[in-house]
Amino acid sequence: MVTPRIQGVIYDAGTVFGRGQRPTRRHLDERLMRRELEVVRDELHATHVRVVASDPARLDTVAAAVVEAGLGLWYSPAVFDCDPAETARNTVAMAGHAEALRRRLGGHVTFVAGSEATLFVRGLVPGKRLTDRFARIKADPSLLHSGDLARFLTMLAAELRPVFGGPLTYASLSFEQPDWRSFDIVGVDHYRDDRVKDRYLEILGPHLATGLPVVVSEVGMRTYAGASASGALGFGITDTTSFVLHQIFGRLVRVRNKPGYVRDEAGQARELDETLSILEGSAVAGWFLASFSTPGTFYDDDPRYDRDMDGMSLVKGLPDGMESERWPGERYEAKAAFDVVAGHYGPPLTRPLGQPPD
User: Fold this and answer.
1) What percent of the chain has pLDDT over 90?
2) CA–CA separation, 246 vs 104, rounded Å?
3) Do 66 and 73 touch, CB atoms closer than 8 A?
4) How many CB atoms lie within 10 A of CB 252?
5) What's the distance, CA 143 to chain centroid?
6) Residue 121 backbone phi and psi in degrees, to 5
7) DSSP string, 63-85
8) What pLDDT band is residue 232 in, cutting at 50, 70 and 90?
9) Closest Cα partner for 267 from 336, 313, 203, 193?
10) Which residues pair with residue 238 across a beta bridge?
């Protein structure tokens, strides 16, 4: 039987990107989360959800709700800013949670054994912080050929196999070089900005040559004018100073955008329309859009504080005093990209509630 192509979306249940930082989602509102998953299934028409979280309890809660909603699940622990040993220990522990869920609820569950480890695992590349490691790689690409990443992931996969009985994958950067023989699915976070538009599918060639199913584990576009050409797609347009002060002082300091950017929902929608059309005509087994929502960010008339403009989400958070027109009573609204993606994903699958995809 031919496996249906994954038409997925990422759901951020609360990610901690660095030690001492606050999670992207401060609190998990289970009522809101379940309602959002209904929207993902019934209105966006997605078939799979990649749930990303740093806290095991949150990840378990949302992952179970995804399976109960009849959606395919990619269980994706965000174990960031740890050394290889600690990363492996925490990831294997969370694989035990995923296996317990898989056995209890059934369903199609894939375990994501990390994401962009070259940047997010301390010690594979020199540099104390993510930005330091990125700068070192950019200055000296030969660092990518040390074999340290491949050895780490091969070791990690060997430790995961006895714990998790479902398919294993890893969400790689397009330029990383894992030994994919240790995995069942090739995952690649692959954004289509102006620097790679003329060779977007070409870059996937080596991954497709592995003979394994290839899934674009993360793809999307931010919501400001010229996002595909700005060179800031990966790290966004957040004013770093305000972000750091917000991490320290909380609501006393408001995070803002860098100056000079304007909102462009139509541009985001157009870029996603083009990207999905390209992927639909390719040999990939599916993709996950980043993302359904961007926790903790809200639309604002003032471009300095329109934090949704910096996000890749398909819905925007609404500030105090605004209520959704499409979903009365909710504090989020569909962006132009939502309907474009829903059009690509098509009508909902005709399967009973609670029955996962093949």
Assistant:
1) 74
2) 40
3) yes
4) 8
5) 25
6) -105, 125
7) HHHHHHTT-EEEEEE---SB-HH
8) low
9) 336
10) 257
Phi and psi, residue 300, nearest 5°: -150, 145
Q: Are 298 and 316 in contact (CB under 8 A)?
A: yes
pLDDT at 142: 84
Distance CA 104, CA 146 (A): 41
Find all residues with CB under 8 Å of 289, minimum gap 6, and list them. 8, 9, 10, 219, 220, 272, 312, 314, 341
> Residue 109, SS3?
strand
Which tokens sit at 211? 């003979």
Q: What is the pLDDT of residues 146-197, one digit of tens each?
A: 889 999 999 999 999 999 999 999 999 999 999 999 999 999 999 999 999 9
Tell me the DSSP string of 29-68.
-HHHHHHHHHHHHHTS--SEEEEEESSHHHHHHHHHHHHH
SS3 state at 173: strand
Average pLDDT, the chain: 91
Question: What type of residue is 50?
Answer: R
* 349 pLDDT more than 50: no
pLDDT digits (tens, 9 = 90+) for 41-94: 999 999 999 999 989 999 999 999 999 999 999 999 999 889 999 999 999 999
Whole-number Cα distances in Å, 220 to 10, 131, 249, 267, 287? 10, 21, 31, 12, 10
pLDDT of residue 355: 42
* CA 280 – CA 344 distance, rounded (Å): 9
Write down all domains in the chain, each with its CATH number in brackets: 6-229+263-344 (3.20.20.80)
Instruction: Tell me if 64 sits within 8 A of 41, measured CB to CB.
Output: no
